[in-house]
Structures are given as structure tokens and as C-alpha cells.
Design a protein that fits this description.
Number of helices: 13
Strand order of the largest sheet: 1-2-3-4-5
Strand content: 25-35%
CATH architecture of the largest domain: 3-Layer(bba) Sandwich
Main location: cytoplasm
Binding site for NAD(+): 188-195, 211, 282
EC number: 1.8.1.4
CATH topology of the largest domain: FAD/NAD(P)-binding domain
CATH superfamily of the largest domain: FAD/NAD(P)-binding domain
Oligomer: single chain
Helix content: 25-40%
Structural class: alpha/beta
Distance between the termini: 73 Å
Cofactor: FAD
Radius of gyration: 24 Å
CATH class of the largest domain: Alpha Beta
Catalytic activity: N(6)-[(R)-dihydrolipoyl]-L-lysyl-[protein] + NAD(+) = N(6)-[(R)-lipoyl]-L-lysyl-[protein] + NADH + H(+)
């Protein structure tokens, strides 16, 4: 006999736990199932984001940034250190404490909102029956008037670079190195590769990033990508473009393990030998084993659950959100989809505007954007005007010793409506939301230009970039 719920949520990552809590707030009886265990072997809610993704990577990025600044920035402030050292174990321990704090926080929120958690692997069967194989081997059955699938995503493994958790790792392994590798190779110059490559470079590793594509960060604005690449190379990141990896061979044992990585580029066949290899070529929907026969839920050719614009699968009462469906694999996109579906089920309006989802890469300098790039506008024949402004002319950025980068505002040439904002520099993960807000309210570059920004602040770069759209920036020769 299965237990009946108004909503059964499969997955307690960003999309799932937001859906569960919002549905409970709206008065529904909710169950949420998650299979993940923490490093202590106990259930750990929060999905990849909280356990082995967004939060722990930012903890290590911040720790490594402090260490890097001691040797590369503090001297300009008249601050000196002698023989600075990094305790990797302490750094990773701090990261683990932060993770535990937040995963425990989700459990507390579930309790406060009367969401019933189940711990184990869920499979959806016909008629919205969900069978859960719990960690103790027992099985429970739940039935939902509605089921929300929020199964998340997994790292993509390459056939010639299988994860062994030691010499060849995914993002999980790269968050838990016990010491700084002398030589680290990264396959993939995307978000994960750049962020984790930056962590270990700052701590002293020789980092080589191998990117198969000929262009760096092709998804970003070309001018932003060019500026970012220049800064990363100045920091010592060895980023090799057009490098297609074909083979990896692990030699040695224990701490003497090495990986020989073979790749081809414009100069022919190449190889490098490293102590650790991080494979960061993207993620795939975690849909394997999720659906029993006869559910009617369909998967696309990439293993993602097919949904409409409202995240409905086409099967009565079955929805899907987050990384396991179309759209960007971003935690905040999952947040919004989870909430929207809970509200739709409750009979309320629910919608996610994909045109205003911000993207951020938390490197130094940070990279962020919202909306369309210049490349996209040109390809689509959209008339536009661009205004940009460098952080090197912003008093606050220079005073902070962080003058790299700029802000670019793109506006429609006829209506002046903001179509995109692209940023590279210090703190742009926060600044990008001025662009998000402006675009959500269908604002213009002139609206941004006429909003008073406090001086001296980093946000003045947005103000001046917006003014530059109309060639009236005060602090720039237009």
C-alpha cells in the first residue's frame, strides 16, 4: 500500500527542494526523495550544488584567492608575509563544514515546512507511483497527485579518461585533493574547468587546460572572452585551444601515479605528463534508472526529460525541472522552475523567463552576462548600439587593486531597450543583476544611465557603460 501525497518530488537539489518547500507553503502534503550521502555516510540534501558543486567550489575559490592575494596583491598595500603556507587539509575541512551547514539547513527547512523526506533511489512508475529503494535495502511506495522530477545531472565521463577518484577525477575529486598537485591537466575550459583550475593554480599547481574548441568561451560575448583569456594567461593558466584529447594513460602507483595525456592541435600530436587529470567536459541529465516502463514520460537524444514551456511532461500530473530538462544547467534556473511548477499546481501563475537568466563564472576576474551577445545580435540582424566602460577608470576598482575588465551594455538601436549586459571584472557576479532587473522591466539604456549610482562604487561602470550607448559617458572619450 503506497502512501498518498499531493506532490512527490524526486530529487532534493536546487530545483527539487525549492519545489517541495514552495508546495508545502501553499498547503500541500509533500514528500521529497533524495539518494545522496555526505562524506560522513549520512543523508545530505541539497543536490550537486550544495554538496559538490556551487557552494564547495566557492569556498575553495575564496580560500585560494586569499592565499594568492598574499603573494600577488598585498605587497602593493604595504602588507608583507614571510613564507606563507597553505594547509590543504584545513582548507578542505573548512569547505566541508560549510557544506554540512547548508545541507543541514535544507533538512531544517523541510522539518519547518512539514516536507517529508525519504532517502534512497526513486523510480517513477505508471499512475504517478514512485518506488523508493532506501539505503537500508527496504522499499517504500509513494503516490502523488502530482510528481515533480528534479533528478539533476551527473559529470560526463570520457571513454578514454575513466574516473578513478585519484589520478583522473571529476569535479567531486578535484574538490578533495589532499595536497596541491604539482602538475594538473584539465580537459575543458568551461565553468568547472576554469574555476577548479584557478583554485589549484593559485595554490601553486602548474595548470594546463585543454579545450577542444578553437575559440575560448564561445558561449560568452567575444570581447569579454578575449579579455578574460588575457587575464587568465597573465595569472599563469596554460590554456591551449583547439586541443582535442584522445588518450590518457595512468602510470605508477599511489602518490607516484602520473597521467600521460595525449592530444592533437594545429601543431600535430602532443602529450603532457601530469600528476592529476580533471575531466570537466560538461554534465548530463541524471535520468538513468529513473523511469520504469509505461510511464509515458519521454527522453530526448541527450537523455533529458522532454517538457513544454511550463515544465510539464505531457503525462497527467508529471512535471520535470532543473538540470534534467532543457535549458541551462544552472542552480538558479532550477530554483525558479521548481517554484513556478509548485505555483502552477496550486492554480497560481508560474513562469520562468529564460531570456533574463544570468550566467556567472567565479574566476578572477569574474565573468557574468545576461541576454544576448553581440555575435547573436549580428547573426539575427538585430540593430543595436553598444556602450562599454573599463574598470581601470573606476576609482573603487583601482583603489581595490582590481582594475581588469569592463562592462558592456547592448541596446536596441531603435527602441533603446536593453538586450544584453556583459561583464568581466571584480564583483561582476553581483553587478549583473542590474542588467537582469532592467531587462525584466523592459528598461532602456537611458533608464540605466539616468539612475543615480553611488560614488565610488564598482556599479558606476554600469552607469557609464549605459551612458556610452548614447556616446555621452563623462569619464571616457566617446
Amino acid at each position: 500500500m503506497s502512501e498518498q501525497f499531493d506532490i512527490v518530488v524526486i530529487g532534493a537539489g536546487p530545483a527539487g527542494y525549492h519545489a517541495a518547500i514552495r508546495a508545502a507553503q501553499l498547503g500541500m502534503k509533500v514528500a521529497c526523495i533524495d539518494a545522496a550521502l555526505g562524506k560522513d555516510g549520512k543523508p545530505a540534501l541539497g543536490g550537486t550544488c550544495l554538496r559538490v558543486g556551487c557552494i564547495p567550489s566557492k569556498a575553495l575559490l575564496d580560500s585560494s584567492r586569499q592565499f594568492w592575494n598574499m603573494g600577488h596583491l598585498f605587497g602593493d598595500h604595504g602588507i608583507s608575509f614571510k613564507d606563507a603556507k597553505i594547509d590543504v587539509g584545513a582548507m578542505v575541512g573548512r569547505k566541508d563544514r560549510i557544506v554540512k551547514q547548508f545541507t543541514g539547513g535544507i533538512a531544517t527547512l523541510f522539518k519547518a515546512n512539514k516536507v517529508t523526506p525519504y532517502y534512497g533511489f526513486a523510480t517513477l512508475h505508471p499512475e504517478r507511483l514512485v518506488k523508493v529503494k532506501q539505503h537500508d535495502g527496504s522499499e517504500v511506495e509513494l503516490t502523488g497527485t502530482n510528481v515533480i522530477i528534479a533528478a539533476g545531472s551527473d559529470s560526463i565521463e570520457l571513454p578514454f579518461a575513466k574516473f578513478d577518484g585519484e589520478a583522473i577525477v571529476d569535479n567531486v575529486g578535484a574538490l578533495d585533493f589532499t595536497e596541491v598537485p604539482k602538475r594538473l591537466a584539465v580537459i575543458g575550459a568551461g565553468v568547472i574547468g576554469l574555476e577548479l583550475g584557478s583554485v589549484w593554480k593559485r595554490l601553486g599547481a602548474e595548470v594546463t587546460i585543454l579545450e577542444a574548441l578553437p575559440d575560448f568561451l564561445a558561449v560568452a560575448d567575444a570581447e569579454v572572452a578575449k579579455a578574460a583569456l588575457k587575464e587568465f594567461r597573465k595569472q599563469g593558466l596554460d590554456i591551449r585551444l583547439g586541443a582535442k584529447v584522445s588518450k590518457s594513460v595512468v602510470t605508477g602507483k599511489g602518490k607516484k601515479k602520473e597521467v600521460v595525456v595525449s592530444y592533437a592541435d594545429k601543431d600535430g600530436e602532443q602529450s603532457i605528463t601530469v600528476d592529476r587529470l580533471l575531466v570537466a567536459v560538461g554534465r548530463k541529465a541524471a535520468s538513468k534508472g529513473l523511469l520504469a516502463d509505461g510511464t509515458g514520460v519521454k527522453l530526448d537524444d541527450r537523455g533529458r526529460i522532454e517538457v513544454d514551456e511550463h515544465c510539464h511532461t505531457g503525462v497527467d500530473g508529471v512535471w520535470a525541472v532543473g538540470d534534467c530538462v532543457r535549458g541551462p544547467m544552472l542552480a538558479h534556473k532550477g530554483f525558479e522552475e521548481g517554484i513556478a511548477v509548485a505555483e502552477l499546481i496550486a492554480g497560481l501563475p508560474g513562469h520562468v523567463n529564460f531570456d533574463t537568466i544570468p550566467w556567472v563564472i567565479y574566476t578572477e576576474p569574474e565573468i557574468a552576462w545576461v541576454g544576448r551577445t553581440e555575435q547573436q545580435l549580428k547573426e539575427d540582424g538585430v540593430p543595436y548600439r553598444a556602450g562599454s566602460f573599463p574598470f581601470a577608470a573606476i576609482g573603487r576598482a583601482v583603489a581595490m587593486g582590481e582594475p581588469a575588465g569592463f562592462v558592456k551594455v547592448l541596446a536596441h538601436a531603435e527602441t533603446d531597450r536593453v538586450l544584453g549586459m556583459h561583464l568581466v571584472g571584480v564583483g561582476v557576479s553581483e553587478l549583473v543583476h542590474e542588467g537582469v532587473l532592467t531587462m525584466e522591466f523592459k528598461g532602456s539604456a537611458d533608464d540605466l544611465a539616468r539612475i543615480c549610482h553611488a560614488h565610488p562604487t564598482l556599479s558606476e561602470a554600469i552607469h557609464d557603460a549605459a551612458m556610452a550607448v548614447d556616446k555621452r559617458a563623462i569619464h571616457k572619450a566617446n
